[in-house]
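Why does residue order matter? Because the sequence determines the fold. Keep that principle in mind as you read this record.
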Amino acid sequence: MRGRFRNSVSETDVPERGMQVATREITTSSPVSRLIEVKPATPNYSRPLAVVTTLFFMWGFLTCLNDILVPHLKSIFDLNYAQVMLIQFAFFSAYFLFSMPWSRVVNTVGYQRTMVVGLLTMAVGAFLFLPAASSASYPLFLAALLILAAGITGLQVAANPYVDLLGKPETASSRLDLTQAFNSLGTTIAPRIGGLLILSAAPLAVEQLRQLPPSVLHAYRVQQAASVKLPYTVIGIALILLAVLIGSFNLPKVETAERGGPKGKDSIWRHPNLYLGAIAIFAYVGAEVSIGSFLVNYFGLAEIANVSAKTAAAYVSFYWGGAMMGRFLGAPLLRRFKPGYLLGICAICAAALVSASMLSGGHTAMWTMLAVGFFNSIMFPTIFSLGVAELGPITGSGSGLLNMAIVGGAILPVIQGAIADRIGIHHAFFLPALCYLYILFYGLRGSRPNSERYAQIQERGF
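Structure:
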């Protein structure tokens, strides 16, 4: 990269070292001297980001299909709310069980290969829906969901930090928010497609089910469960094709050490923004999943909207569609304003809307609850990027911890289901409201990285 300017030009060579700026002093016949900076070209990551974004869409689509499975399997197997929330428990417990193993896989084989293995694992889980439906076995459905979610966990552990590291640190929140917007696109489409394909037939009432003889009841359950075969077969095939695409694409290699130097004696427990962020992820996912899981049944209540399950499923798309709109709008805002403050504003708005829905009825209660989705929008990507800030070479381990915290989607819906069995759905939503209050604290106080904490300590003279 060195050249010589001849005739009336003399050159002072400055050696290039890594990413340092090379400078050349050029002296012409005039007495004016200029310093020309030759800066390395900024890499264009638009194509790899576009490819990885397809993963966000896919796991968003599959995650939101659970909201359709909840009322469907509840009616087939005559389950109460606590029992049917085992769907979310089986699905989201995979994050707790497999996040740290997947983080070790990432450290061993890299981000791209982990994505491929995760997609193939998801395909196995999707195909397991076929024997589960044929045998009308609720435990087998739960096992299929666990394996499907284990693969999604691998994608989350690999893709989230990959997007965070693929570019400038100061735009990480905005970049991750934009990719998460396509995750919300999947969650927006899923309820409509799932409602049309899975909830197409009107189920028998509970009283009718309990009057059927065992053989007839089993045949009825097999017939009703068969509606999941086509969508999950198509999903399994699509996952395999996507694994081939990801595996054959030349994704840039990203090393976490680029942002932090040697690992040394650093530990994830020395970063309060990380472990407090893990609690925030637990609260956020638990709140979002709890709300989404109950919407179909909530809108079916006589005092709310009194609509059928199929009609209610269409309304659920507004909940997830609001999150998609919020993420597209939030991406530029996160570049202009401090992410923690925006997170706090969204958290207090979400808590207020949930409270308004509990204190009202009719369509007011319905639309205020649906509006929560808009303010959920930036929460996950913002908490995640704030949580892994300044982790450097332990970013992979930090990502594993944050993904483990997604187990909130397994625990809190079951707790809310048990509460709903006792006091009803309408007022059981106080649990998500409490979660949003903790997220408010994290955005305003708990998300500060160590550099900011130490700077404040020095300013106070300690």
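The first helix runs from residue 46 to 77.
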